[in-house]
Design goal:
The protein is mainly β. It has one domain: UDP N-Acetylglucosamine Acyltransferase, domain 1 (3 Solenoid), CATH 2.160.10.10. The protein contains one helix and 20 strands. The strands form two sheets. Strands 1, 2, 4, 6, 8, 9, 11, 12, 14, 15, 17 and 18 form a twelve-stranded parallel beta sheet that branches. The termini are close together.
């Protein structure tokens, strides 16, 4: 299994021993990943000019990029922002997560882009391919879609169930991969 855990400017990633990191992934700099989370194939998590925090039982799916901003590079012109991702969050394949906050129990669909200082509140669902502009606040129990993203409606019970169930599925899958030598 080949993945990279790299120190940057004396800041080394802090990764719980229960975390699964798949082949081809890179975790760089001031990154913390908590218990029973998973980082799937070919992800890049780069915390070079700010920090990244990823909570428990969160799954970062294949091809996702997570980064941060500094004062000199912030899309909103501010002092820069870390990326903070809570517990039980699902980040779909090929998402781009940049200098934002994603609260616990949320789902970000495949190919979505979440930009600087956006805040995705608990039990929010970002549809596949949605672009959440800088500084946007997504409220609890909302489905967002489009480019630029906008609120579509309140979540349905099946969508809330998907938000709760997907982290459990990925936690189990990660344990199976680890058991099979990945």
């Amino acid at each position: 299994m080949v993945f990279e855990i790299s120190k940057y400017l004396n800041k080394k990633p802090k990764i719980d021993k229960t975390v699964f990191i798949a082949e081809g992934s890179n975790v760089i700099g001031s990154v913390e990943i908590k218990k029973n989370s998973s980082v799937w194939f070919n992800c890049t998590i780069r915390a070079d000019v700010n920090f990244i925090s990823i909570g428990e039982k969160t799954n970062i799916q294949d091809g996702t990029i997570i980064h941060v901003s500094s004062g000199g590079f912030s899309a909103t012109g501010g002092a820069g922002s870390p990326t903070i991702i809570g517990d039980n969050v699902t980040i779909g394949h090929n998402a781009t997560i940049h200098a934002c906050t994603i609260h616990s129990n949320s789902l970000v669909g495949m190919g979505s882009i979440i930009l600087d200082n956006a805040e995705i509140n608990e039990y929010s669902f970002i549809a596949a391919g949605c672009l959440v502009p800088p500084g946007t606040v997504v409220k609890k129990n909302e489905l967002w879609a489009g480019n630029p993203g906008k609120p579509i409606r309140k979540l349905k019970p099946k969508e809330l169930e998907l938000i709760d169930n997907t982290p459990l599925v990925y936690e189990k899958l990660a344990k199976e991969f680890l058991k099979n030598g990945f």
